[in-house]
Design goal:
This protein is an all-alpha fold. The protein is built from 11 helices and no strands.
């Protein structure tokens, strides 16, 4: 048992326990402690990918989208990253830019993900937020309308309802403004 445990300790990735502990703290709602621990993990292992990705997401949720964007942009340009990780980093970067109200930049990032991320609900939610934030309400509505054709089955009805609600809100705003059409 001792030999097996020593071998396991040597083969375990550095910082893995701290990383898992940080995720547990996040789930428990201890965001400040989770952020501190994730900072330590990425400091100890600068080549790690997942901790950078989640640290950026946590920073954005805590209101520091500027630092999150820096982390996520850094991930998008790393060589030799798995395609799925690059897509996740790109979507996170677009969400950061939306939080910063940098709508055009977010749109550019989403355009680069067009071929590889349109099957993800997260892509369509982020694209909707970007177009709505730009004030391009017809395109925002079209985004919600077209999403159900691309997203997993479990999310289709949610997008259909969001589309109906969004169109109803738009019609109500026009009616209140006296626009009969």
């Amino acid at each position: 048992w001792v030999l097996w445990r020593n071998w396991q300790d040597r083969t375990a990735p550095p910082g893995r326990d701290s990383y898992l502990q940080a995720l547990e703290l996040w789930i428990e709602g201890e965001l400040d402690e989770a952020a501190k621990l994730l900072h330590r993990v990425v400091h100890d292992d600068p080549h790690a990918v997942e901790p950078y990705l989640y640290l950026g997401n946590l920073l954005r949720r805590r209101g520091d989208a500027e630092r999150a964007a820096v982390l996520h942009r850094g991930l998008t340009v790393r060589p030799n990253l798995d395609h799925e990780v690059k897509v996740s980093a790109g979507l996170s970067l677009a969400e950061d830019l939306n939080a910063l109200k940098r709508w055009d930049e977010s749109g550019e990032v989403l355009d680069t993900l067009l071929r590889s991320a349109t099957g993800r609900s997260r892509y369509w939610r982020t694209r909707f937020a970007q177009r709505h934030g730009q004030g391009n309400l017809p395109e925002a509505a079209r985004t919600l309308k077209h999403a159900p054709r691309h997203v997993p089955e479990r999310d289709r009805e949610g997008f259909r309802r969001a589309y109906a609600s969004y169109q109803l809100d738009r019609a109500l705003r026009h009616a209140l403004a006296g626009e009969a059409g």
